[in-house]
Amino acid sequence: MMAGEKPVTVDGEGKLALDTLPVGIAFIADRVITRANRRLEQMLGYGPGELDGQSSRILYPSEEAWREAGERYRLFRGGEVMDGEFRLQRKDGSALWCRAVGRAMNPESPQSSVILTYSDASGRHEAERALRKSEAMYRNLVETSNDLIWSLDAEGRWTYLSPAAVRRIYDCEPADMLGHEPTDRHHYREIRKLCGRGLPTRLDNACRR
Question: Which residue has the higher pLDDT, 207 or 68?
């Protein structure tokens, strides 16, 4: 904190207002938490007043993450607002994804006094993780299915063909068929000619339709 500057103080009414907000709030001066509202304490598993006076290092899962947070202070210069998602550390050591929005009280000396708000983003991260897992499972089922799963574009050309089924039914690779119409018999004959084989019966019949 620069000479002549005073830490942010909160009176009784202000404290009540801060403690009833649905987001966590921290006032930080020279990387020390001078005040944290009740919501932030609850989010991170601390009792009333436990965060006050602590180094902001306590909020981060590693020394490296804390140093990276310090480097972001340059974003506050010129009155800029910092907005992003970061992983914080609860009192029990578990991780909590939060969206943080911060601004310096004095843009000329951002480290001297910063106010940060934190909203819990863990639910969305869990949903995204579950979605990625579901997509991976679905992709594996499709790609290994013995039944042909396919899609066509507006011009009636293949845009997707399940690999295992294409190899089993047509005895070629999906890439050999993508971008062509199902009835493009000449194209498939050229593929088979390169492979030294004739058209598979199923593909030959399909091309005759």
Answer: 68
